[in-house]
Structures are given as structure tokens and as C-alpha cells.
Amino acid sequence: MLIVLSDTHRTEGTGLVGAAEDAVADADLVLHAGDFTAEAVLDAFHEAAADLRAVYGNRDGAAVTDRLPEATTLSYAGVRIAATHRQRGGATGLAMFGRERGADLVVSGHTHRPVVDGEGSLTLLNPGSHADPRGARQSFAVLEPTAEGLSGRLTTVDGETFERFEVENE
Question: Which of 25, 33, 56, 169 could make an SS bond with 65 (beta carbons 3.0 to 4.6 A apart)?
């Protein structure tokens, strides 16, 4: 299981509670799309997750940005994933970023609002924020392998699934 998070905005700890905390503990891989804010938060995520991949965000201090890339590309269950905190040009910019990297899924953060936007063979995912939702619900994404790629869902920290989606591998 792959768990996708973003926009923690804390000075210590992970801010994980409820279903988000349980999901991270059970995950094969955790992908964080930036804005830990403090190095202690990044360290706490490394302790909480069996395998953490992450990018830095616009609110991360130098201690975090020195340790993380601005963007990364990885594969999970045959799906190529490109991750960044934000991209100029909104959805169009994110789609261009994903296509340049040959991605099936683009993960971003920054807005604190959960969004899934399927664009042909490319899916854009913002998991929202599990710890600092700023007017949206506290959320994260869960992606599980299928024969065709990944079955995903946006979930609240209370465990409520409010959107489902599929990501096909190419």
C-alpha cells in the first residue's frame, strides 16, 4: 500500500492521527509532497514510515531542503509517479511536468485541498493535508496495487473515503 501525504506544516511530530496514522504504519511506501516545515517533522516521518520518499515544499526550511529534492520520480506497482510540491501553471503545468517524466501519476501539494484530476493517461493527485487543511477536510490518499495499476481513494483522518480513482500503468 502506498500512502500519499502533503502539507504537514508542523514544528515537531508528524501530525498523524486516526486513519492517517494507521495507514502510514501499515504502508509499504509513504510519499510526502512537501511542506514538513521543520527538520524534526521530516525525522519523525522517517521514524513512522517503513519507506519514505519526499520532496521539499515552499515552506520548508534549509535543513529540510538540503535533504530533499524539489521533484522526484519513482515507480510503485508498475505505475510511474512524478512528485513535486507545486508547479507553475496549475493543472496544465503539472501535466507537462508529468509528461516530461513519463509519469502515469503526478503527485503535488501546496493547496491543502484534496483533488484528483484524470487527464487521459495521466492522473493528477493532491492528497490535501492531514494536519493543516485550511478550510478543507483533513485528508490523505491511499493507493493499492491492482492488475492494471493502482486503485486509489482520498480519505479523511476519520477513515471516511470521499473519492475513489484508478491509475493505469502504461
Answer: 56
Give the pLDDT confidence score for residue 120 in this predicted structure: 63
**Which CATH number fits the domain that encloses residue 30?**
3.60.21.10
**What span, in angstroms and rounded, lies between the C-alpha atoms of 101 and 99?**
5
Total domains present in the chain: 1
Q: Could you tell me the residue range of the domain that residue 144 belongs to? A: 2-168
Of the listed ranges 18-27, 46-55, 111-120, 142-151, the least confidently predicted one is: 111-120
pTM for the model stands at 0.97
Pick 169 or 161 by higher pLDDT: 161
DSSP H or E segment with residue 81: strand 79-84
Dihedral sign, CA of 14, 113, 54, 118? positive
